Structures are given as C-alpha cells and as structure tokens.
Amino acid sequence: MKEFLSHLFIPKESNNHRAKILHHTNLFLTIVFLLLASVLIQKIKVSFPSVLGIKADISSEELLSLTNKERQNVGIGSLIFNEKLSEAASKKAQDMFEYNYWAHNSPTGKTPWVFIKSSGYKYVYAGENLARGFTTPEDVIKAWMTSSAGHRENMLSSNYQDVGFAVKIGELNGEETVLIVEELGNLNVPIVRGKVETVATAENTNTLHKNVQAVHKQPLINTSSLSSNIYYVFILVFIFALMLDMIIIEKKKVMRFVGHNIDHILYLLLVLILIGIWGKGVIV
C-alpha cells in the first residue's frame, strides 16, 4: 500500500517523474467517474427519495419573520401576511412545476399579475420574488437581500403592505428542487398609522397558522451534502498532489521532457465540471 501511494502521489522514475494521479489518463478516468457518480446519485434520489434527497426546512412563517426583520432594520413598516397573495404564490409555484419553467412569466403567457388577480387580490402595487434550490429560510432572504436584480428593492419597498409566500418541493427540469415564491402587494386602502402594527399582529397570528406554506423534508442522506463532500475530497486530493509534485520536482531539480498541456486542460475541465455540479440555490 505504501509503495502504491508513493507511486500515486510522489514524482519519481517509476512514474516518469510525474505523480501517477496527475497523468492525463487518470484525470480522464476521474472525470468519467464523477460523471457516472452524479448520474447514479440522481437515479437513487429519484427512486428512493426517503433515503437520498433534498434536506429542506423552510416555512412562510419564518420567511415573513425574516423579511420583516430586514424592513425594521431600515425603518420600514412590517408586511402583513395576506391569504390571497399566498394563494397566488401557490398557484405560481404549481404553474412552474406543471409547465417546467423558471421565470417570472409562464410559457403560456401568464404574468405574475394573472395569478394575483385570479386569487381576488385587487392590487395597486404588486411585485414578485422567486428563489429555487435553497434549503433554509435564512439563505433565501440573504440571497434576495444581496441581489442586484430588484429583489432587495421589492423586500424593502414602502409601496408594499401585504405579502404571501409559497414553499413547494417538486421536479423542475428533471431535478427535484424547492421553489419559494414571494408575492407582494398593496391594496392602497387608507389606514391609520398608529393602528398598523396592531392589525398586522392580529392577521399574522390568526391567518398565517392556518395557511402556512412549508417544506420540512429530512431524508436519510442529504444529496447536496453527499455530492459536495465527494467533490471536495477529489479537489483536495488533486490540490495536494499538485503541490507535492511542484515541491519535489523543484527540490530535486528534475528536468521534464514531456508536455503537460493536456494535463492542465483536463484538470481545468475537471474543475469546471465540479463547479457546475456544485450549483447552489438561484433567484430570479
């Protein structure tokens, strides 16, 4: 075993002064292995979701609380949970799963406002935030708050007084994922400023608990963690091998007469593949 590891990681005459793990044939086999592992994990996830799947714990109650905390931090009044906007968010999420798209506008031509109006919410102002692939409410809110595409503006806009959420898990583009939809609105109903917090508290307490949208899924093995751990191990192994190779060759002053361009290209391809597989949640 010692000799095998030495041949694998230490450049010497038996491996042409190039760690065996860095030979282009081994890099190619590693890429193939990772691709096959990715396909296998996906098939197991589909066939046995209770064993291998997405671990997620998000509720509209938590999203509302975190959103209002951000608004309070900048001195803006809290949003009131609205049942009709929640219904609109739920319809929008279901439409995305049904027609397999990830955008504000449906392939059928429906805009977010169609879902809001069909739920009976006659808005003066309305907005929508979408998130996909996140597993905690904190990550969702953080992504929206750090976005430069208008999500932060929606969350902190004084034009909105009401909000509804949908949190649903389903298959999108052939992959199981969690969709989070936030619909914001304002009926422009005159209200007395001093009574806003009292009304909001009553509605939040009585309505939200009846219509809470949530995903609480705890599979035996979390797909994201399993995949990430596998890829992290491979990346660290290759980084270790490259550093060791560089140190030993420099120390021994070994002159190499073989090209390494193909090795470097394959290594970069490996990194690109891993980055693609590591994709985290996205917002739109």
List the helices and strands and how they pair.
Layout: H1 2-9, H2 24-47, E1 52-53, E2 56-59, H3 60-73, E3 80-81, H4 83-99, H5 112-118, E4 125-132, H6 137-145, H7 151-156, E5 162-172, E6 175-186, H8 196-208, E7 214-217, E8 221-222, H9 223-252, H10 261-277, E9 282-283
Parallel strand pairs: 1-8, 3-5
Antiparallel strand pairs: 2-7, 4-6, 4-9, 5-6
Helix pairs in contact: 2-10, 3-6, 4-5
Provide a descriptive summary of the structure in words.
With 284 residues, the protein is of the alpha/beta class. The chain contains ten helices and nine strands. The strands form three sheets. Strands 3-5-6-4-9 form a five-stranded mixed sheet, sandwiched between helices. Strands 1-8 form a two-stranded parallel sheet.
Low-pLDDT stretches: 190-212
Largest sheet: 5 strands, mixed
DSSP, total strands? 9
Task: Report the end-to-end length measured between terminal Cα atoms.
Answer: 51 Å
Mean of pLDDT: 76
User: From N to C, what is the helix and strand string?
Assistant: HHEEHEHHEHHEEHEEHHE
Spatial extent as radius of gyration: 26 Å
Structural class per helix/strand content? alpha/beta
> In DSSP terms, counting alpha (H) and pi (I) runs of 4 or more, how many helices?
10
Oligomer status: single chain
Strand content: 15-25%
What percentage of residues falls in helices of 4 or more residues?
40-55%
Shape: elongated
Order of adjacent strands in the largest pleated sheet: 3-5-6-4-9
